[in-house]
UniProtKB/TrEMBL annotation:
Membrane-traversing stretches: none
UniProt KW Transferase keyword: yes
UniProt keywords, alphabetically: Nucleotidyltransferase, Transferase
Pfam name, any one: NTP_transferase
Protein name: Nucleotidyltransferase family protein
GO molecular function: nucleotidyltransferase activity
Keyword Hydrolase listed: no
Nucleotidyl transferase domain sequence ranges: 1-121
CDD domains in the record: NTP_transferase_like_1
Classification of source organism: Bacteria, Pseudomonadati, Pseudomonadota, Alphaproteobacteria, Sphingomonadales
Source organism superkingdom: Bacteria
Length: 231
């Protein structure tokens, strides 16, 4: 599941003329870079949700084959947010568990593909969600205070308000469809389901072994291009 339906408000003015997933970093769009991450892990099929400038996204998918079989989940009528967008697309997702990836970050794999690492770490008996995380100190361009604490077994709990947490969610996760049982109707964020999974001890994380860049603003685009050039 490729989450590509956001409004991209923080990326203005670049998103005045294009949807955020089509903003380019070092000559390649964020959407195509997300596809690159999936293909490196052996993924063959993706579902992409669309809302803001949906026609532009669909035209991009038709003109530039991502090397994957792609289906579109149409949110033109209503933006469903992260959790609601995945819930709406579940009938198009033919596997369980399945991956979800944000189209506004950049992942550079370390010794092992991040996608394959999530797959190898997955324990269906223990997990409803497995999030790829990165230490706050290595979260390039990330403006926040961290998202989660992680125990020795990899179980996650959310950062408390006003505190700092050592791990940042990278936008890539492996999810069981059972996480969406009794999910709210309409738009909702993934945190709703993450907190439910955490309360049951079924929200886990694994550390990214490569590089990660938060690319949510025009300034972050420039900074990321400079870091990629240096690397």
């Amino acid at each position: 599941m490729v989450l590509a339906a956001g409004l991209g408000k923080r990326m203005r003015p670049l998103t005045a003329t294009r949807p955020k997933p089509l903003v380019e970093v070092a000559g390649r769009s964020l959407l195509d870079r997300a596809f690159d991450t999936l293909k490196a892990g052996g993924v063959r099929r993706a579902v992409v949700n669309v809302h803001y400038m949906a026609d532009r996204l669909e035209a991009h998918l038709r003109a530039r084959s991502p090397g994957l079989e792609v289906a579109v989940s149409d949110e033109r009528a209503q933006l469903m947010e992260t959790g609601g967008g995945i819930a709406q697309a579940l009938p198009l997702i033919g596997c369980d568990p399945f991956l979800s990836i944000n189209a506004d970050n950049i992942w550079i794999d370390g010794p092992v593909s991040a996608v394959r690492m999530l797959s190898e770490r997955w324990d269906d008996a223990a997990m409803d969600a497995l999030l790829l995380t990165v230490p706050l100190a290595r979260a390039n361009n990330h403006p926040g205070l961290g998202d989660f604490h992680m125990d020795a077994l990899g179980r996650l709990r959310r950062r408390l308000p006003g505190r700092v947490a050592p791990f940042v969610y990278t936008g890539l996760q492996l999810l069981s469809k059972r996480l969406f049982a009794d999910a709210p109707a309409g738009p909702f964020g993934m945190m709703t389901l993450w907190e439910r999974a955490a309360a049951a001890g079924r929200l886990y994380g694994v550390g990214h072994q490569g590089l990660w860049y938060d690319v949510g603003t025009p300034a972050a685009v420039k900074a990321t291009e400079a870091m990629l050039a240096a690397a």
